[in-house]
C-alpha cells in the first residue's frame, strides 16, 4: 500500500512532493554518501542541502532520521570519535536548516524487515555498519530577534517608560512564579516553603514589589547593575512607544554600557541629564527594611517574598544575569538571632537534600560554611552581592558534578532593624536569600541556566503539573564555534570586563558560553595595552549555524568598538 518513487534528488524534495500530499511526519536517510571516494567536505555539503530540503516538506513536529557509519557524525556518541575536522559534522550541517539533534541510538539492520546494506563504493556489495548510529533531528525554535522593547512599570506613585536592556528582552514578565505556572522554579519555591512551614509560622508577602529600584545602592559596584534611562514621555502608552512615535527617546545598548564616572554612575551626554538613579532591582533584600516597617509585620513570623532580580555578571553556565530570588524574613529578639539563623540554615539544607533525593535518588553533599571563610572574589555573583549589602553568617554550599565545584545557592544572615516603637531596638531581622534558579538546576539536573528560560515547549512538557523530574535535554551535542578578538585598550582607562561580557550576551542572544583572556600585551615604548579574548558560541536549546555565529562576531566587534572605545586589531 505504499507509493514508491525512484531517482528522487534528496536535496530537492519539494520538487517531487506536492503541498497537497501533506507534510511528512518522518524522513529517513540511511547512510547518505556522495559516491565512490568522496571526501568529508562533499558529504557535509550533501547533508547540509538534504536538511535544507527536509525543512520544506517536514511537518512542524516531524523528525529526520539519518543513519551514519561509526565515526562519521563527529558526535561524542561515536565510538571511537573522530576529530571534528575529519568528520561529517552532522549537528552543524543540520543547524544550518534549523534542526537540532534530539536523539541518537544504534542502527540495527536486523530490526528493519527486508533491509539490505549495499552500496560499497557504488557497487552492489555490503559495507560495514558495525557501530553505526541513527541520528534523530527535530525542528528548533528560532533565535530571538534583536529588536528594542519599551516597558512601562510602576515606580512609587508614577509610571516609568524605558527601553529594556537588550539582553533582558526575552526575560521580562515571563511569569515563572505565577499560580498557574508549572515551571520547576516555582515548584522548588513551593516545596522549600512547605519544608520551612514545619519549623516556622509562615506568611507570604502579597504585595507586588516593584521591578525598578530608585536611589543609591551601597557596597555594590554600579557597573554590575542594569541602570535604565526613563523616557521623557513617561505617560505614553506602551503600544505607542513600541511603534516609535516622534517624541519617543530610544536608547541603544551603548547608552547602557558607556560613559560612567569613577564610581560607576552613568553619565548621558548631549544635554540629556539624569536627575535620578533608577535600576532594575539587583536583589529583593533591598526591600527588607520597607517590609519590616509595615504595621502588619509580626515578629516571630517567617515572611516569604520572591521574584526575578537582575545583575550584570561574567558569562558562565552558572552566572545568571536574571534569576528568581526567594527571601525568607523573620524578626526575632536581640540575642536570639544566632539560634534562629542556625535553625533556618539547617532547615533549608535538609529541604534541599530531601528534594534532590526524591527527584534523582542520588546523595548530595550540602555543607554549611561560615561567610568569614570566603573572600568576596571567591563567591559567585549572587553570593558576593548579598555579602556586600548585609551581614551574612552562613552559605549553604552544594558540591555536585552537575553544577561544577561548589555553588552557593543560599545565604543566611541578619541585619539591623529601624522600626518605630519602644521595642524596635530589641529586634533583629534574620533572613535567608535563596537562588531558586540554581536550586532548580541542581534538583532537576539542568546543566545550563539558559535552559530555564527557553521558549521551547519540550522543556516544560517534562514537568507536567509542576512535578519535579530529572531533566533530559532535547538538544544533544550542540555544535560549538570559536572566535578570537584582539584590540587595544583606550589609554589611561581601566577595561570594563563586565560590560564586555554584557555586550557579548546581547549580540549573541546568550549563545556565548565562554570568554577567556588568552593573551595580554603591553608596548614598552608607548605603554599601550592589547588584549586578546577567545569566545566560544554554543546554544543549549536552539540550532546555531556557523554563518549565524560569524555574523554575531562581526556585530560584537563593532559593538565593543563603539561602546568600550577599543581599537580593533
Structural class by helix and strand composition: alpha+beta
CATH class annotation of the largest domain: Alpha Beta
Number of helices: 12
Percent helix? 10-25%
Distance between the termini: 64 Å
Q: How many β-strands, per DSSP?
A: 19
CATH topology of the largest domain: BirA Bifunctional Protein, domain 2
Low-confidence parts, pLDDT < 50 over ≥5 residues?
Answer: 234-275, 371-380, 402-406
Shape category: globular
CATH architecture term of the largest domain? 2-Layer Sandwich
Q: Average pLDDT, to the nearest integer?
A: 82
What count of domains describes the coordinates? 3
Cα gyration radius (Å): 27 Å
- Biggest sheet layout: 7 strands, mixed
Output the CATH homologous superfamily of the largest domain: Bira Bifunctional Protein, Domain 2
Residue share in β-strands:
25-35%
Widest sheet: strand ordering: 7-10-11-15-14-13-12
Please characterize this protein's 3D structure.
This protein is of the alpha+beta class. The chain has 3 domains: 13-139, Rossmann fold (3-Layer(aba) Sandwich); 174-208 and 278-466, BirA Bifunctional Protein, domain 2, CATH 3.30.930; 481-568, Ferrodoxin-fold anticodon-binding domain (Alpha-Beta Plaits). Helices cover 22% and strands 25% of the residues. The protein contains 12 helices and 19 strands. The strands form 5 sheets. Strands 7-10-11-15-14-13-12 form a 7-stranded mixed sheet. A 4-stranded mixed sheet has the order 1-2-4-3. Helix 1 (40-57) links the parallel strand 1 and strand 2 (58-68). Helix 3 (184-197) packs across helix 9 (436-444) and helix 7 runs parallel beside helix 9. The radius of gyration is 27 Å and the shape is globular. The relative contact order is 0.11.
Amino acid at each position: 500500500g505504499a507509493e514508491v518513487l525512484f531517482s528522487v534528488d534528496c536535496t530537492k524534495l519539494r520538487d517531487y512532493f506536492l503541498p497537497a500530499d501533506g507534510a511528512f511526519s518522518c524522513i529517513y536517510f540511511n547512510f547518505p554518501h556522495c559516491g565512490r571516494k568522496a571526501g568529508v567536505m562533499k558529504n557535509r555539503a550533501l547533508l547540509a542541502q538534504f536538511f535544507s530540503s527536509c525543512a520544506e516538506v517536514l511537518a512542524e513536529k516531524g523528525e529526520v532520521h539519518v543513519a551514519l557509519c561509526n565515526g562519521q557524525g563527529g558526535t561524542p556518541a561515536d565510538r571511537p570519535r573522530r576529530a571534528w575536522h575529519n568528520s561529517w559534522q552532522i549537528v552543524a550541517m543540520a543547524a544550518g536548516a534549523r534542526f537540532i539533534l534530539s536523539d541518537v541510538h544504534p542502527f540495527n539492520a536486523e530490526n528493519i524487515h527486508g533491509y539490505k546494506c549495499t552500496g560499497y563504493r557504488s557497487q552492489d556489495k555490503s559495507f560495514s555498519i558495525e557501530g553505526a548510529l541513527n541520528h534523530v533531528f527535530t525542528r528548533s525554535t528560532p533565535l530571538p530577534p534583536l529588536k528594542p522593547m519599551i516597558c512601562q512599570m510602576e515606580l512609587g506613585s508614577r509610571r516609568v517608560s524605558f527601553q529594556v536592556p537588550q539582553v533582558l528582552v526575552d526575560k521580562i514578565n515571563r511569569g515563572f512564579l505565577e499560580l498557574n505556572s508549572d515551571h520547576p522554579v516555582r515548584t522548588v519555591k513551593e516545596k522549600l516553603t512547605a519544608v520551612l512551614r514545619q519549623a516556622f509560622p509562615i506568611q507570604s508577602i502579597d504585595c507586588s514589589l516593584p521591578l525598578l529600584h530608585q536611589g543609591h545602592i551601597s557596597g555594590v559596584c554600579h557597573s554590575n547593575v542594569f541602570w535604565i534611562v526613563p523616557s521623557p514621555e513617561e505617560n505614553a502608552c506602551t503600544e505607542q512607544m513600541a511603534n516609535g512615535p516622534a517624541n519617543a527617546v530610544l536608547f541603544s545598548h551603548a547608552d547602557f554600557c558607556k560613559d560612567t564616572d569613577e564610581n560607576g554612575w552613568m553619565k548621558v551626554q548631549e544635554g540629556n541629564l539624569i536627575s535620578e538613579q533608577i535600576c532594575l532591582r539587583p536583589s529583593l533584600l533591598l526591600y527588607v527594611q520597607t517590609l519590616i516597617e509595615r504595621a502588619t509585620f509580626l515578629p516571630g513570623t517567617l515572611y516569604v517574598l520572591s521574584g526575578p532580580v537582575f545583575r550584570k555578571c561574567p558569562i558562565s553556565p552558572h552566572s545568571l544575569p536574571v534569576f528568581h530570588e526567594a527571601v525568607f524574613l523573620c524578626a526575632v529578639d536581640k540575642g536570639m538571632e544566632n539560634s534562629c539563623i542556625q535553625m533556618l540554615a539547617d532547615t533549608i539544607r535538609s529541604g534541599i537534600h530531601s528534594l534532590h533525593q526524591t527527584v534523582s535518588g542520588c546523595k548530595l553533599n550540602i555543607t554549611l560554611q561560615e561567610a568569614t571563610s570566603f573572600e568576596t572574589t571567591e563567591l559567585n555573583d549572587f553570593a558576593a552581592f548579598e555579602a556586600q549589602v548585609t551581614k551574612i553568617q552562613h552559605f549553604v554550599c552544594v558540591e555536585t558534578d552537575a553544577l561544577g565545584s561548589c555553588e552557593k545557592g543560599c545565604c543566611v544572615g541578619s541585619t539591623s532593624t529601624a522600626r518605630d516603637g519602644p521595642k524596635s531596638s530589641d529586634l533583629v531581622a534574620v533572613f535567608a536569600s535563596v537562588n531558586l534558579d540554581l536550586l532548580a538546576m541542581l534538583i532537576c539536573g539542568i546543566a545550563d541556566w539558559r535552559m530555564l528560560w527557553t521558549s521551547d515547549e519540550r522543556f516544560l512538557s517534562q514537568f507536567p503539573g509542576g512535578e519535579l523530574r530529572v531533566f533530559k535535554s532535547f538538544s544533544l551535542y550542540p555544535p560549538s564555534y570559536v572566535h578570537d578578538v584582539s584590540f587595544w585598550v583606550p589609554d589611561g582607562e581601566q577595561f570594563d570586563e563586565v560590560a564586555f561580557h554584557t555586550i557579548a550576551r546581547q549580540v549573541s542572544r546568550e549563545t556565548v558560553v565562554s570568554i577567556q583572556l588568552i593573551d595580554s600585551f603591553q608596548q614598552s615604548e608607548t605603554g599601550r595595552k592589547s588584549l586578546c579574548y577567545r569566545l566560544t558560541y554554543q546554544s543549549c536549546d536552539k540550532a546555531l549555524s556557523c554563518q549565524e555565529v560569524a555574523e554575531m562576531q562581526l556585530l560584537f566587534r563593532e559593538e565593543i568598538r563603539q561602546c568600550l572605545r577599543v581599537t580593533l586589531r
